[in-house]
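step=encode ok
step=design start
structure_in=
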């Protein structure tokens, strides 16, 4: 198998999927980080605002604000969206929102 030839072969039950992927003929993977293929901003705004509303903070994130924050560290998101909250609170809200988006 190719993965064994290149020294990538992993052992153990949890690595079966990893080995299966390595042995496939098609090796391309597309990361659409800049939104050219799929613009995720609208669903992200909706999902994040759902979390903020559930936690009693309204729906403060706008499409325009998210667009301005793209590429910045997550701490900048919290500072821009919730300047009135202490850093721990806003970081917690941003983490919860981000986890919900990951499940999307």
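sequence_out=
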């Amino acid at each position: 198998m190719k993965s064994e030839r290149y020294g990538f072969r992993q052992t153990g039950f949890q690595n079966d999927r990893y080995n299966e992927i390595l042995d496939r003929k098609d090796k391309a993977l597309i990361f659409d980080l800049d939104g050219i293929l799929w613009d995720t901003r609208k669903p992200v705004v909706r999902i994040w605002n759902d979390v903020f509303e559930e936690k009693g903070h309204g729906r403060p994130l706008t499409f325009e604000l998210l667009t301005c924050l793209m590429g910045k560290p997550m701490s900048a998101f919290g500072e821009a969206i919730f300047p009135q909250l202490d850093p721990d609170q806003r970081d917690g809200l941003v983490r919860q929102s981000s986890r919900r988006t990951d499940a999307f």
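step=design ok
step=annotate ok -> Confidence is low (pLDDT under 50) at residues 1-6.
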